[in-house]
Design goal:
3-stranded mixed sheet, 6-stranded parallel sheet, globular, 14 helices, alpha/beta
Length: 293
């Protein structure tokens, strides 16, 4: 896979991913609504484009690191980025979407004569900055083989999860189920510790080195102990992602009680005005519920 890369979505994860591609010698044209992100990409050696269509003009690959399927559709169709791509270009959708939405977008991209990869990622800002993302790609074998070298530049854990679009999104949905439940469980545990009058830092040190430890506990736990941590993934992201989990459960006629409970706590935190806060701040909903707010 060669030629110009169009990269749309230069957020907390997208920007460092685009910069890694530039650092690896690729020509990257980026677009985002945030002018500071565009300026940062340009400073790193990328090209700042005035629109998604301008970024995609004649490009051989389009990477979409947007928030959801709605934004992906807006870029591809209303924003005319799909039509601007080279005739045999490949579209790589890296947003967290419902499996049915990823499949539908893939079918529309294929109808234009382009290739499509349903390729969500996990690993957060740290993974994006270090190139250690987990990538869950679903595409025909030939499409995957062509895009594999490029994807390996942004993630060192690359998996071909299937040939049917939507399978990558399904894996990411399961991943987000566990992530959301783990964050909520950690918040519940720390709130119980606060109610008991325990030292939060000491509690984190003990739990983080015991059988109760998890990646989410050790990553989000320190931020739960801060009053206003820097946001790397907002509460509202998990409102969206756990909503996708709930819809997947409904479509499969499967009860997901733990995911449902976690979703309610993220909704409560968002409803209380904390939607833009770091997702660790779901703990504020637990504190309010238990008279600690």
């Amino acid at each position: 896979m060669s030629g110009t890369i169009a990269f749309v979505g230069l957020g907390a994860m997208g920007l460092p991913m685009a910069k890694r591609l530039v650092a690896n010698g690729n020509t990257v044209r980026g677009f985002d609504l945030n002018p500071k992100a565009l300026a940062s990409l340009k400073q790193a050696g990328g090209v700042a484009s005035e629109s998604a269509a301008a970024a995609a003009e004649g490009a051989g690959t389009l990477l979409l690191m947007v928030v959801n399927a709605s934004q992906a559709r807006a870029v591809l169709f209303e924003g005319k980025a799909l039509a601007a791509l080279a005739p045999k270009a490949t579209v790589v959708l890296m947003a967290t979407c419902a499996p049915a939405e990823a499949l539908a977008i893939g079918e529309e991209v294929a109808a234009s004569g382009r290739s499509f990869v349903d390729s969500p990622v996990s690993g957060g800002v740290v993974g994006a900055e270090s190139g250690t993302l987990t990538i869950m790609a679903a595409a025909p074998k030939s499409t995957f083989a062509a895009i594999e070298p490029l994807l390996k530049q942004v993630g060192d854990k690359l998996f071909h999860v299937g040939e049917r679009w939507g399978q990558g999104a399904a894996v990411k949905t399961i991943n987000q189920l566990l992530c959301g439940v783990h964050i909520a469980a950690a918040a519940e545990a720390f709130t119980l510790g606060e109610k008991a009058g325990l030292d939060g830092k000491l509690l984190l040190q003990i739990l983080g080195n015991s059988a109760a430890a998890s990646w989410m506990l050790n990553n989000r736990g320190p931020r739960m102990l801060q009053s206003d941590p820097q946001s790397t993934s907002a509460v509202d992201i998990f409102v969206k992602d756990l909503g996708i989990v709930a819809e997947a459960g409904k479509a499969s006629r499967m009860g997901l009680p733990l995911a449902a409970a976690a979703l309610q706590m993220f909704l409560a935190a968002s409803g209380a005005g904390h939607g833009k806060a770091d997702d660790s701040q779901v703990i504020r909903a637990y504190r309010a519920l238990n008279g600690l707010a």
